[in-house]
Amino acid sequence: MAKVDICSTRKDFIAEVPWGDGDRRLVIVENCHHGGREYTHLHTWNRHRVHDCWYPTKRYFTIPRHNIRLLVDALAAALGGHTADKPEWLAYFESQMAWRAEVKAMDLLNKVNAPA
Question: 28, 59, 77, 83: which could form a disulfide with 44 (CB 3.0–4.6 Å)?
Fold first, then answer.
């Protein structure tokens, strides 16, 4: 097995992808080699409204290279308009969030309608 320098990181630029409306946002796609592992980095950048310079945002996704095909397939399915059933954990989470929002709304309504 080849010796791997766990401290070195090499990034290879892949693409600059426009993101959202206009030319003020983009995603930088890079392949990253670090510690013997390979990842794909997606990092969003914005163009400043006043100074017109680019700056990185906090939106940064690191995807292991062996999972990229799954992401590409999911994006292609979304582009084709395909849908699927939600996983059970996601459906449960969303139902809990909807219930909490309803409880908060009822609590707020009770506070507004409470006699002074």
Answer: 59
Is 0.70 surpassed by the pTM of this model?
Answer: no
- Is residue 95 helix, strand or coil? helix
Kindly state the tokens that stand for 109. 């309504």
Q: For residue 94, what are the contacts with CB-CB under 8 A and spacing of at least 6?
A: 86
In terms of phi and psi (left: phi > 0; alpha: psi -120 to 50; beta: otherwise), the region of 20 is left
Q: How many CA atoms lie within 13 A of 19 on its CB side?
A: 16
Beta strands in 1-116 (DSSP E): 9-18, 25-34, 37-47, 54-64
